[in-house]
Amino acid sequence: LAAARDGDKAALGRLLSLVERGGEQAKAVGRLTIGPSAAVDQVIGLTGAPGTGKSTLTDRLIGLARQQGTVGVLAVDPSSPLSGGAILGDRVRMPGHALDDGVFIRSMATRGHHGGLALAAAGAIRLLAAAGRAVVLVETVGVGQVEVEIAGAADTTVVVVNPGWGDAVQASKAGLLEVADVFVVNKADRHGADQARQDLDRVLDLGVGSSGWRPPVLMAVASTGRGVEDVWAAIRGHRDQLEATGQLTARRNQQLVDETGRLLVRLVEQDVRALDGGRRWQQITEAVAARRLDPHEAAAELLELAGQ
Ligand SMILES: Nc1nc2c(ncn2[C@@H]2O[C@H](COP(=O)(O)OP(=O)(O)O)[C@@H](O)[C@H]2O)c(=O)[nH]1
Ligand SMILES: [Mg+2]
Asked: What is d(CA 45, CA 242) in angstroms, rounded to the nearest whole number?
């Protein structure tokens, strides 16, 4: 970790591999990451449908984020079982910073995480923070539950939509209105960008949340860089607001508590499924499938057996 903090990207890469692999070594790395060293300035999540321009926008934002210090980028792909493909794809799409020692880019895909990708990503984000990265950018592909969960591990969540796709009804259906701190209508060089922004603005005006932050809707052309400085200003503005209202610390604390809860659920489920070499799980779930046992009763019974 000391080497990683000094900018050794290979060391950081090895630590991330340990976190991804899980188990005892991941726990040991996790122990290194607690304490006041985790003074990351801002964790920024970018989410939105595939092809909306998240990687292109991320590539642009890296340059602006460098004003704060070193940058870590995590590209998380819940849909891809092949991490190799994801790595190649993201290297190709973020070419602007390959030679910058202050920028570390890493991909994570579904393989090996068995539904725990959001948890693995949370651990990776904490590691990047502990390794002294001032800004961590997390790009997630797609708009499913896992993506929204990963976005929830950020201080600021940017939702990227396009003209046409960006109509407010679709965004709200995908649960994006709730997680967005900043909206970007990217590909504003295409027809319908104004309409998309107006639609989103209209819906957002209806529901200013209790946090007092009304997500701004910005237009950008990530491929040329147009509007990207305004996107960055909005992202920083959200951070300033979080800090001024004491929500930055509160939000980060709550994220750790939520992560603990999710990990606990996973550990308990692993234990229960492994009871008696898996036979208990099989017996009881067969009884549930045969309608001989109610799922609530079944779960309670398994939990009790695990406690014995
Ligand atoms: N016309 C146009 N194309 C863009 C813009 N931003 C990105 N693209 C292109 O859209 C495609 C998908 O971009 P990418 O960043 O890989 O999207 P991602 O899947 O959301 O990460 C690429 O061919 C980009 O060059 C934009 O603002 N305007
Ligand atoms: Mg991408």
From this structure: 15
Ligand 1 pocket, 261 CB below 6 A? Answer: no
Residue 162 in contact with ligand 1 by CB distance below 6 A = no
Please tell me the distance between residue 47's alpha carbon and the centre of ligand 1 in angstroms: 13
Which ligand gives the minimal distance to the CA of 48? Answer: 1
The better pLDDT of the pair 50, 298 is held by 298
Cα–Cα dist 224/235, whole Å: 19
User: Is 223's C-beta closer than 6 angstroms to any atom of ligand 1?
Assistant: yes
Residue 263 in tokens: 């990990």
pTM: 0.89
| Residues 180 and 159: beta-carbon distance below 8 Å | yes
Q: Where do the DSSP E strands lie in the chain?
A: 42-47, 71-77, 103-109, 135-140, 156-161, 182-186, 217-220
| Ligand 1 pocket, residue 163 CB under 6 Å | no
Tell me the average pLDDT of the chain.
86
CA triple 182-186-191, angle to 5 deg: 130
Residue 225 and residue 57: Cα distance in Å, rounded?
8
